[in-house]
Automatic annotation (TrEMBL), chain A:
Source organism (scientific name): Bifidobacterium erythrocebi
Transmembrane segments: 21-48, 108-131, 167-188, 200-226, 246-264, 276-302, 331-353, 373-401, 432-456, 462-482
Keyword entries, A-Z: Cell membrane, Membrane, Transmembrane, Transmembrane helix
Main location: membrane
Record bears the keyword Membrane: yes
Segments forming domain ABC3 transporter permease C-terminal: 113-228
Pfam families with a match to the protein in the record: FtsX
Any GO CC annotation of this UniProt entry: plasma membrane
Protein name as annotated: ABC transporter permease
Record membrane topology: Multi-pass membrane protein
Compartments reported by the entry: Cell membrane
From TrEMBL, chain B:
PANTHER family reported in the protein's UniProt record: ABC TRANSPORTER RELATED (PTHR24220:SF685), IMPORT ATP-BINDING PROTEIN (PTHR24220)
GO molecular function, one term: ATP hydrolysis activity
Coiled-coil regions, chain positions: none
Claim: Repeat is one of the keywords in the record: no
Keyword flag Disulfide bond: no
Protein's recorded name: ABC transporter ATP-binding protein
Lineage: Bacteria, Bacillati, Actinomycetota, Actinomycetes, Bifidobacteriales
Protein's organism: Bifidobacterium erythrocebi
Length: 498, 283
């Protein structure tokens, strides 16, 4: 049978069920990822546009490839602007301020690239959860197909087609989302001016490229997950205890964090390398610190769950903690995006503090620069939090579908829906609290040598806590959505007949 | 012949269990006062028509009504009575409505029409067909126990916590619930499995843990749906023996849905279903 015919067989109108729902979830995940990816790409494009003499990336990297004449004019403008900086005590006019802001453009590109680097983690996690979601339902169906005589090649093709179509759909919706979000981004002020359409618009070729890229990504990741799920006709998953994460993770975490602390404490030693080099160094240190949180995260969560599982205060806690211990990696993946968001929130809060108006000249470029770091951080934080919430929601929903049979049994035996919802919430919020503590602690430790006591300024704290609150709200929305999914589950595909 | 042997075995067994504190709980004492022959569940004129239900569920249905109109009801005017401490096997071919009957008796599902009454004790009765879902959930948790074919244990929980779970759902605290669970494991000779998770056990071991879980709350009725369906003959017999002995020691009635005459032989009474009817009228 032709693969497409086979695919159509499974997607007939009226053939609704869990499969349909998981497809919808996967499409949502792909759409959210694409929207945010394109928006971030648009932002980077905008900063490159501003930093480059003829608005192209090639010119930014290599001045020889600039359009004729543009580079020279650009250099001249910069030199003039340099003179404004040299003269102390001048009142800033809008014109002069803007000219000096232009000389900071390279720094903006570096920071935007850093934000991108940070967002890679939640992207990968979201793509992974979308692929896993697709594979989770395929297990049963594909085994049945194999049993009915389908060849492995047919099954693999079917899966790949399924994933690719979901991704194509999702990416298409994501492009619409990108266009919808653009007016909002244009409201933001960077370098004291709004983004223009041509700065944020990445161009049609890039859109097509992203569409193709997302589809290929889904194709590849679904093939990889499929390889792990051996599709034998009798594909039954056996579940045995997994070893808990090893303690060496903690040692590495402690050693590296201490090293980073010392490095940041003596960051002035590197002042000779230039401002941008110091920036790269500091943000690099934060990135390493964040990676370390990822190394230690699974261990901390397992430890916490184990402590709470020793004497659970009720049935919901017992189920939740055991579920975390069953697969601490899954629990960590569920909230790892938030770990990142908290890191960004801490950095952002410092930007907000320095950038806030303290009676200084509102046109002072260095002031504007700090304010922009705050705004950019806030933006990155929002993106990271949304990505984390979507992927956590998708992951929870897919785990609900995975455990559908057990939930049904528990319901039959007289477990009320409230206990099960409570267990699901605990399963998310215990790791969430843990990760916020570890991540917050880690980033504060790294920031302390740089900003010292200003960390405890009310403005910083307010900004920090609102950032963390945002994460909690978004994750709660994700958990709530998963619970909604679970509520519809009990009736789906179930008929009390023998 | 075989049935008689089994009844004798069950009668002899209780001594092994009466030594523990739970056999002397309130409910067992109440059972002892009730004369044999007193009903625990009565069902009258049950009709279950899935097609009719689906018609009302989606009035502007996607499914053409004519396609469903000719389907025979899963239960067609079934009346059934279960006495205190009685063991009944429900047999019949696939699609005869056995599981549907079990689900309705246990308050898992509601019939299209008819009544199910659960008699707690002395003139106190619940109309299962007349109470809300939450109350039926509570009743299932407190008064009934369930043993399914497989997959009812949570794979993440070790055996002892799987057994403790229904107790904890009822509000018992962790240490007391796990103590009770350990007693049950000991009673069924499974103490060495306490910290094992279902994935690390054999099918027979899992079913024994499931039986312990079903009985841990001292239910008045244990519902078993093909409890040995996933086991080999010898293990199946062993598991049935344990289920019957433990239920009898507890004073619980047992309803077993099965295809297997060997399993039915463990029960004091067998009823047969065919096309949604109980053969031989009211049972």
């Amino acid at each position: 049978m032709n693969t497409f015919t086979l695919w159509k067989l499974f997607h007939r109108r009226g053939a609704r069920g869990i499969g349909e729902r998981t497809s919808a979830l996967a499409v949502i995940a792909f759409a959210a990822a694409t929207t945010i990816f394109l928006t971030v790409l648009g932002g980077v494009h905008g900063f490159i546009w501003r930093a480059s003499a003829d608005h192209t990336l090639g010119c930014l990297i290599n001045s020889a490839s600039c359009a004729p004449g543009t580079h020279e004019a650009w250099e001249r403008a910069r030199n003039e602007a340099g003179m404004f900086v040299a003269a102390p005590g001048t009142r800033w006019t809008a014109e002069r301020s803007a000219a000096v802001m232009d000389t900071y453009s390279d720094g903006y590109v570096i920071l935007a690239a850093f934000a991108c680097l940070m967002l890679v983690v939640p992207f990968v996690s979201l793509a992974g959860s979308a692929a896993r979601l697709a594979a989770s339902r395929r297990d049963a169906r594909l085994s049945a197909l194999r049993l009915a005589g389908a060849t492995t090649a047919q099954v693999v093709k079917l899966t790949a087609l399924d994933a690719a179509i979901q991704a194509l759909f999702g990416a298409g919706i994501g492009i619409v989302g990108y266009c919808a979000v653009m007016p909002l981004i244009m409201l933001l002020k960077f370098q004291n001016r709004h983004f223009m359409f041509q700065e944020l618009w990445v161009g049609l070729p890039v859109l097509v490229g992203v569409l193709a890229g997302v589809t290929v990504l889904a194709l590849v990741s679904s093939l990889i997950t499929l390889r792990r799920v051996a599709i034998t006709p009798l594909g039954v998953m056996s579940r045995a205890a997994q070893p808990l994460p090893a303690t060496w993770r903690v040692l590495i975490f402690l050693v590296v964090m201490a090293g980073l602390y010392l490095l940041l404490n003596n960051v002035s030693m590197f002042a000779g390398l230039g401002e941008n080099a110091v920036f790269v160094l500091v943000f690099g240190a934060f990135f390493v610190g964040f990676t370390m949180v990822n190394v230690v995260g699974t261990w901390v969560i397992a430890k916490r769950a184990k402590a709470r599982a020793r004497r659970p205060k009720d049935a919901a806690t017992m189920i939740a903690m055991r579920r975390i211990l069953d697969n601490p990696k899954r629990a960590w993946r569920n909230v790892s995006g938030v770990g990142l968001a908290v890191f960004i929130a801490v950095i952002t809060s410092i930007g907000t503090l320095v950038g806030q108006d303290r009676g200084g000249d509102p046109l002072d470029p260095s002031m504007l620069y700090m304010r922009d770091i705050g705004t950019g951080g806030l933006l990155t934080l929002t993106f990271a939090a949304v990505l984390a919430a979507v992927s956590s929601g998708v992951m929870q929903a897919s785990s609900v579908y995975d455990q559908a049979a057990e939930y049904r049994m528990l319901r039959l035996e007289g477990t009320d829906e409230r206990t099960l919802s409570k267990a699901r919430f605990k399963e998310v919020f215990t790791p969430l609290n843990t990760v916020v503590l570890v991540s917050g602690g880690g980033s504060v430790l790294l920031l302390f040598p740089i900003v010292a006591m200003t960390l405890f300024d009310p403005v910083t704290l307010f900004s920090l806590f609102s950032g963390i609150a945002l994460c909690y709200v978004l994750i709660a929305v994700g958990a709530w959505t998963a619970n909604r999914a679970a509520r519809t589950l009990n009736m789906v595909g179930y008929r009390a007949d023998d | 012949m075989k049935r008689n042997q089994n009844v004798n075995a069950s009668v002899a067994a209780p001594n092994a269990y009466t030594t523990n504190a739970y056999a002397a709980s309130d409910r067992t004492a109440a059972h002892a006062l009730i004369p044999v022959g007193r009903p625990v569940i009565t069902a009258t004129n049950l009709i279950m028509d899935y097609a009719a239900r689906r018609r009302t569920a989606n009035r502007v249905g996607a499914t053409p009504m004519s396609a469903l109109a000719n389907t025979a009801p899963a239960l067609n005017n079934v009346s059934f009575r279960l006495n205190v401490g009685e063991t009944v096997a429900i047999m019949g071919p696939s699609g005869s409505g056995k599981s549907t009957l079990l689900h309705i008796l246990a308050g898992i599902d509601l019939p299209t029409s008819g009544q199910v009454t659960y008699h707690v004790r002395n003139n106190c009765a619940y109309e299962l067909t007349g109470i809300c879902d939450q109350d039926r959930t509570m009743l299932r948790r407190n008064a009934f126990g369930f043993v399914f074919q497989s997959g009812q244990l949570l794979p993440e929980l070790p055996a002892v916590e799987n057994i403790a779970l229904p107790l904890m759902l009822g509000g018992t605290d962790y240490s007391q619930a796990t103590d009770t669970a350990m007693l049950w494991l000991e009673r069924l000779g499974l103490k060495h499995l306490a910290s094992h998770r279902p994935g690390e056990m054999s099918g027979g071991q899992m079913q024994r843990v499931a039986i312990a879980r079903a009985l841990a709350t001292n239910p008045s009725v244990v519902f078993a749906d093909e409890p040995t369906g996933a086991l080999d003959q010898a293990t199946g017999r062993e598991v049935m023996g344990i289920l019957m002995d433990a239920a009898q020691a507890n004073g619980s009635a047992v309803v077993v849905v099965t295809h297997d005459p060997n399993v039915a032989a463990f029960c004091s009474r067998t009823v047969t279903m065919c096309d949604g009817r109980l053969l031989g009228g009211e049972q």
